[in-house]
Amino acid sequence: MSNLKTVPAAAVAREAEATSAQYLTFTLQDEPYALGILHIKEIIEFNEMTQVPLMPDFVRGVINLRGRVVPVIDLLARFGRGATQVYRRTAIVIVEVENRDGELEAALQDVGIMVDAVNEVVEICQADIEPPPMFGANLRTDFISGMARRGGKFTIILDMSQTLSIAEMASLGGMA
Predict the structure, then answer these.
(1) Which residues of 39-66 are buried (b: 16+ CB within 10 A; e: fewer)?
(2) Measured between alpha carbons, how far is residue 44 from residues 25, 47, 139, 157 in Å?
(3) Cβ proximity of 75 and 60 under 8 Å
(4) 175: exposed, middle or buried (C-beta count within 10 Å: 0-12, 13-18, 19+)?
(5) End-to-end CA, the chain
(6) Within a 13 Å sphere around the CA of 125, how many CA atoms are in the beta-carbon half?
(7) In whole angstroms, how far apart are CA 153 and each of 87, 128, 129, 137?
(8) pLDDT tens across 124-160, in order?
(9) What is the pTM of this model?
(10) 8 Å CB contact between 119 and 147
């Protein structure tokens, strides 16, 4: 007699759903990227912004979002791949990032990220996510939390705590 247990298909499906998450997908230079939706606050049309002197190239400026000053980061420039060209579908995704002031204080700060186009919100199973590559993705691998297999292609899932590290961007701003 076999010691193997038969697991009902419904239980397997429930377990797969429990290990999936929703991601907002977008493009930069026709390459697909994704962000977990938990820290995304809203998506707005690209509009004029105020440029701030002595900022690194990847800080495009600031916008007024209902009375709050929100910095806008050009992700393409942040990845060292030039500035994003503004087209009809260019958008700003407002995300909340953790701003650590020392080791004890942590506050959330709104930051806008400039993308070529926002696509859709998708559900991605953990089983469809590969670890970041060790080389060859044209950006720092610490910016990548995983590579999602979708339709025969990979979508780069960004690690926002690294990509939009306030401490790192501030130190780069000090060097500018």
Answers:
(1) bbeeeeebeebeeeeebbebbbbbbebe
(2) 15, 9, 26, 21
(3) no
(4) exposed
(5) 71
(6) 10
(7) 25, 11, 12, 13
(8) 999 999 998 776 555 557 788 999 998 889 999 998 8
(9) 0.78
(10) no
